[in-house]
Every structure is written in structure tokens, then in C-alpha cells.
Amino acid sequence: MINKKYLSLCLIAFSLSSVENTWSQDEGENNALDEIFVIGSNEALRNLAGSATFIDSEELKEFDDTDLTDLLTRSPGIYIRSEDGYGLRPNIGIRGAAAERSQKIVIMEDGILISPAPYSAPAAYYLPNVNRMSAMEVMKGPAAIEYGPHTVGGALNFVTQPINLERQGMLEAVFGSDNYQKYRAEYGDQIGQFAYSVNLLRYSADGFKELDEGGDTGFIRNDLNVKVEWNTPDTAKYQQKLQLKLGFADEDSNETYLGLTDDDLKATPDRRYISSKLDRFVSEHSQIHLLHSIQVQPNLRMFTKAYVNRFDRSWNKFDGLIGGPSANIALARPDIFTTEIGLMRGEINSSAAGGQLIDVTDNDRRYGSQGIEFSTKYDYSFGDWQHNFQLGVRFHHDYVERDHHQRGYEVINKDLVFDGITNRTKKALNKASTNAGAFYLNDRIDINQWTLNAGIRIESIEGEYQDYMTDSITTDQQTVVIPGLGVHWQWHDNLGLFVGVNTGFSPAAPTAGSEAESEKSTNFEYGLRYNSSFNLEAVGFYSDYSNLIGRCRVSDPTCIAGQEFSAGDVDIAGAELSGSRIFEMDNGWVIPIEFAYTYTESAFQNSFLSSFSQWGNVTSGDELPYLPKHSARFQVGISNQQFSFNTALRYVSEMREIAGQGALEVGNFTPKHTIVDMSANWFINEDWKVQLVGENITNKRVIAARRPIGARPIAPSLVRLGVQYQF
Length: 727
Prior knowledge:
The protein is mainly β. It contains 6 helices and 40 strands.
């Protein structure tokens, strides 16, 4: 068992960690804290023995994205399920791994686990605000096994703004549709051997949805981050850097799980029923990260990452009907459940609905994670063989405390009136915690045109679940070995071929009980990478799941929240194609073009009946839900030193919402759609910039999903105008 006292002591100690990359920053920036990167640059992808995507700072700025899901469509192999239209709580999957609350991918900030409780409760109700980042990295297949615990799909790394070694600042204000407002401020400087930076972000909107009888449907987010760094002088025997990063973020949003019937969405897609008027999400996130690096020898570097993250959230929201059927079922069959639909709309009173009440439950949760990571990087030669040896170990502890309390509200004259009962039985009162130790070893070997990456990850996980309502405790312990192998052959200067295989793993959460099995797969990939006047990457992937698991959420009508289901053998396969080219014109204008495309197919290998609502009655050969067969993004632009214009098209084919095969059933799939975004930038001079962005300019309005509860629309056309000043 990992000693918690020992772990706490380690958090104030220096540690030694290393991450391979070949990134270099612009002159004036501090480029030695390279362990915050996983890939490092687009150039580093050329001979990577695996597939990955690097989204740099210029790409982040092109559409001034605050919605992470819009940005990630630049990478093939990514699956997005929209929910609120602003990307407040994204649903992201990689290579078939379930997108549900991004629970089966590794999410990091500067190479540090940042999900609220990645082992004990992997659903990511918090992700960093992408608008304050300098880069985004996506790792898939063997390239992701270093960054567990979830290796079935891949990993995301949010790279924060670097500290500049000269005085520099930025101010920005953006205004847009539905009273959208965004304010950013950055400032940094160096004083002797110390450097610092301050980054502030605030953005908000009144929301595009309209609550029956009026009310707020918007949100406000605030984000403050401070970095302080110490560097040894150039004359020091051992070059060292120590960085302290402090962060605080909060959110207050009037968001809901409740959607609409299909007919209501078609008629008024931005409508919100009166039964969701009390819904409100409030959260606070705080973090302390300490990073240390030392160059012991020219070929030996050591690094430390110590971290403490806290996340508290309260989501008071519509959670169904008291004394009535499942709201999901009622919304799916409004022709049968006319009374229940009328109650949710506020068209009839509870007294005329057999005494049914609106269930408003406050899902109050407290999350915490802390850990320390030691690793080292050693370069050495053995004849013609150049080795890049990496070794790392991480000690991690996380937990979640749940207190879900229910209140009943009568519908009276299109309003919600509390029924006065304060002692209803809680829906959940429990705590789940995990101690995890991870060891990673990798050797990258370069010999002539060949690059070989051989790595292994070992996870030792001890989970505990304490249910205070039943006064019971369950424990679980597992140790898993996760190997990975990748080979890259640089056939000639412009063309490289690669192939890889790794074990996929996603641990069962403590709430699943000691009998639950973790998710396991064997993942294969093969591809080619061409770099010349244009860049092209083509990748095939195949994931052979020996045990696919589904996790029940609070909104699922036929299971208990936290319950896990096993589907056994499942196959997922597909192809990814991406490329880019820049055409240079004689008059100084350039035309950049880029695209990303993903083809995916899947099949359950067993027949079974499941109470997990996304699966249901499964027949062998059924396709997985929420996996579009086709998804693509195409972007073209034109720019010179003063102006730039970009247009992006995002396409997603139909998606099943429940397992099945053959013809799509009405009410059980989302329609195909294409979204068009545009942006224009005017660089007035070196200091001032004006930007105009239009999202979904054709105002495409279709069903994005019928989860969590009922049909939800794609966001309407949104326009933003901003100005930025750098000094």
C-alpha cells in the first residue's frame, strides 16, 4: 500500500522526471522547462514511431477557440459529443474510446494529471480553459502509454503559456452574440535569476437558450494562473530550474441535463422547459504544481513534478420526476406520456398529474488529487545505435466525496414550488479513493533510417469505496503491465513508415466493486508520413477489446450511478488521414490548406441484454453508439503580413445513440451535419490586432445528442469581435 504520509512529504521535495521532446521556443522565451511538453512541435512528429497531433499557438489563435471540442476537430481520431453548445463539459473520445465525459482518455496540463480524480472518478467535470494555452497535444496508440492510467484511446496535454525572459504583456477584449464577453490579460518579466508571469481570463455569455417564463441560461468563467521561476546562472556547475505554478478557476452556469422532445427541438431548438429553471452548476478548481529540472551531465537530465489539485462542484439540476416514469423514456415517447411532458413544460399542475413532482437534486461533490513524479532521461551510444533512455515513477492519490440530496417541487401555474419536505433520503452519500503507483520505462533507439521505441508501463492500483448509507466498505487491488512497441522507418528524406502495438487499459473505478473487471484491449496502428512541399499522414488502427466497459451516469434511467457493465469482446477499426500545404503567391499572399478525416467501424462480438441504456439488447455485430462512421475537417485561408482570412468546414456523419446494426431507427440516431466557421484578422501593427469570428454561419440546427436527458441542439450562429493589444 502507498503510504499517504510519505506521499505528502514527497510533495514538498524535489523530484526527477523527464519527457522526450525536440521543441525550441522563440528567442526571448524560456525553453528549458521542456518536460511540460509531450510531443514538442510539428517537426518532432516527423520520425515519431506512432501517431500524434500538435496544435500550436498560431492555430489556437486562428478562431480564438474557447470551446475545446471545436479545436480538437483539427486532429483525426477524435470523437466529440456536444452537450451545452459552449464546450463547458466536453465529451471527448479517441479511437473509439467512449466519449462520455472524456472518462477514458488521459488529460494533463503541462504533463501533469489534471482531471479531478482520474482513478477514483474518471469523468472529467473539469478541464483547463483552452483559451489560455499555448499549445495542445494529442497522443494516440503506443505514443500514449507513458501517460496512464487510461491507455485504450490516447491522451491530451494542455500546454500553458511559457514564461518570457523579457518584460511583455497583453490585453484583450472580445464581445459577441448573446452578450458574449471575454477578457484576457497577461504580463511577465525577469528580475535577476527569477522570472514570473500572470495570466487572467474571464469569459461569459447570457446563453442562447430561452427558458419558458424567462430566466438565466448563461455562464461565467474566471481563471487566474501565476508562474514563478528560478534559474541558476549560466556559470553554475549544474543548470537547474524550479517553477511554481498556482492556479484558480471557477464557474457559475445555469446549465441543465434536461433537453427537449424531438418535435419541440425541431420547432424551437433553443427552448428550455420550466422544469429546469432551478438548474445551476457552481464549481471551484485550485492547483499547486511544482516543477524542478537539473542537468547533471550533458547527456543526463532529471526532473520533478509534484502536484496538488482540488475541485469542488455543486450541480443543482432537474433529475427526473418523483412518482413518475423516467424522464428519458417520457421525452422519447411524448405520444404516450402526455401528462409527464405537460408537467415538464409547465402546461399542467402537479395536482392534475397524479401528484407527480419535479425532482431537483443537488449533486454535491468534492474531488482531490495529489502526487509526485520522478523521471530521468539518459542519452548514450552503443556503436551505431543511439539510445534515448527514459525511466519514470509516479505516486498518486485521488478521491471523490459525493453528497446527492433531493428536493421535490410542485408545478403550480407555470412555476416550481418547493413541497417543504427536507428529509428525503439522499441519493448518494459516499467516498471513493485510490492509491496508485506507476512505473514507466522506455528506450528510443535510432540507427540509420530506423527508430525503435520499446516501452513498458506498470500500474499498481488500490481502490476503496465507502458507502455511508449502507455502512459498507469495498476494496479492490490490481496490478497491470502495459507494454508498447513502435517502429519508424525513414524510407527516404520525405517519406517515413511506422507501425506500433500497445496494450490498452482503463481501470475500473472503486464504485464498481471488487468483482468489476477493468477495460482491456490490444491496439494496433500502421501508417506513413510524407513531408515535403505538402505534409500528409495516413494511419490505420485496430483495437481488439477483450473487455469493454460502460459506466452508468446519474442521468441513465435503468442503472445505478457508478455501476459498470462489461460487454466482453469488441472490435474497433478505422483509418485517419490528415495533411496540409501552403501555397505562396508572388504578391506576398499565402494560401494555407489543411484537412483531417477519420473513418471508423465497430462491432460487438457477443450477444447479450444489458441494463446500460446505451447498449440495451445487443446482438453480435451491432455497432457501438456515438461513433460516427465519417468525420472530417477542412480549412482554407489566405493571409499576408497585415490580414488573414480562414474558413473551416466540420462534418460528422450519422451517429447511433444505442447499439445496433442495419438501417438507422428514428429517434435512436443523430443526423449528419456540416458546420461552417469563418475568421478574419487585421494586424494593424506589431501591437494591435482586431479579429472577427463567426461560428456555424449557416445556422445549422439539428440534434447533437439525446443525452443526458432529451434532445439537445447544435449551437446557433454566433459572432464575436475582439481587439488585442501587446506591449
